[in-house]
Automatic annotation (TrEMBL):
Function comment: Catalyzes the reversible conversion of ribose-5-phosphate to ribulose 5-phosphate.
Catalytic reactions on record: aldehydo-D-ribose 5-phosphate = D-ribulose 5-phosphate
One of the Pfam families matching this protein, by short name: Rib_5-P_isom_A
Organism per entry: Chitinophaga hostae
Binding site for substrate: 28-31, 83-86, 96-99, 123
Cited Gene3D superfamilies: 3.30.70.260, 3.40.50.1360
GO molecular function, one term: ribose-5-phosphate isomerase activity
PANTHER family reported in the protein's UniProt record: RIBOSE-5-PHOSPHATE ISOMERASE
Name listed for the protein in its UniProt record: Ribose-5-phosphate isomerase A
Family: Belongs to the ribose 5-phosphate isomerase family.
Amino acid sequence: MQTNIGKKAAGEKAAEYIKPGMTVGLGTGSTAYYTILRIGELVRGGLDIRAVATSAQSEELAREQGIPLVDFDKVEKIDIDIDGADEADAQLQLIKGGGGALLREKIIAAASKEMLVVIDEHKLVKHLGKFPLPVEVVTFGWELTFRQLSALGAHPVLRLKDNNRFITDNGNYILDCHYQKIHNAPALHTQLNNVPGVVENGLFLDYASRLIIGHEDGSVREITHPYPTKTSF
Ligand SMILES: O=C(CO)[C@H](O)[C@H](O)COP(=O)(O)O
């Protein structure tokens, strides 16, 4: 049986990289949840940081935890962004957006000096693509965007929540694209973002600098990427 031990171990470990005075990006999801709880403990213990949230959900949690929040538009750079992923490979390429927050997550990752990714061991894969790739699309003309993605072999499915269309924090829809195996992630990334109506897709290529993998026994393993190019060093 899968437990949350790996997620908790990875999420909490990541908080060790936060230093006083930092501006921190708070990720979204059930693994980043543990990072936010740990940061809350550290803040209540006197750690002086400020944070920017990648979703309304994480913002609410951070507020509950007493973590000082700052508006993204008031921030010049983020020192460290800590976020989860739906899949990661050993080169630290990611699929994100299972929680529907991929657009803000990517904007904040791109504004960060470092992106730490927290996952449990089940999300480390040889090839990206088994997890359906989330693609955020504008609601206007979304059926046409859907058809164009279908024609490109994406096998899109409109994401629903409680039988209604899932709406992102940005007022958009998500089309989950079923590839099974992604062969050329950079080419796919460009192809998807070139479709009119697509706002962003969940491939995070060369963003992550450190992958923190939590195991069922509570241990963690880390893999680093020496030169991620998409974060703003
Ligand atoms: O990209 C995300 C949200 O948009 C999450 O980071 C991703 O879905 C992983 O979530 P979890 O830790 O709950 O499995």
